[in-house]
Amino acid sequence: MGGFMSALAIATAFLVLLNCVMLCSLTHRARRFERAMARFEDRGRLKLEKDTMEALALLRAGRIEETKAVAERVVDS
Fold first, then answer.
1. With a threshold of 0.90, does the pTM exceed it?
2. What phi and psi, each to the nearest 5 degrees, are found at residue 30?
3. CA dihedral 12, 13, 15, 17 (to 10 degrees)
4. How many domains, the chain?
5. Are 70 and 77 a contacting pair, CB within 8 Å?
């Protein structure tokens, strides 16, 4: 009976350690995912700003057809 309790204590400690490692890995992946999403959102926002400025410049220059094409690209993205 003493050997069984000793093995059970070792197994419990091992499982607790394994859970801690898995939790650390999961939080690390979550942080990486959040950073990647932030970069993706920043790229999308910057592209939208660039396309909007391009459309405004084309509109000011009186190039209506090119402005429509850029506006469609903005709406489709």
1. no
2. -65, -40
3. 160
4. 1
5. no
Per-residue pLDDT of the chain (77 residues; tens, 9 = 90+): 778 888 899 999 999 999 999 999 999 999 999 999 998 888 888 888 898 899 889 889 888 888 888 888 888 87
Residue 53, both tokens: 């400025």
Q: In which domain, by residue range, is 22 found?
A: 2-76
Concatenated DSSP letters for the chain?
A: -HHHHHHHHHHHHHHHHHHHHHHHHHHHHHHHHHHHHHHHHHHHHHHHHHHHHHHHHHHHTT-HHHHHHHHHHHHH-
| Termini Cα distance of the chain | 68
**Tokens, residue 59:** 């509109």
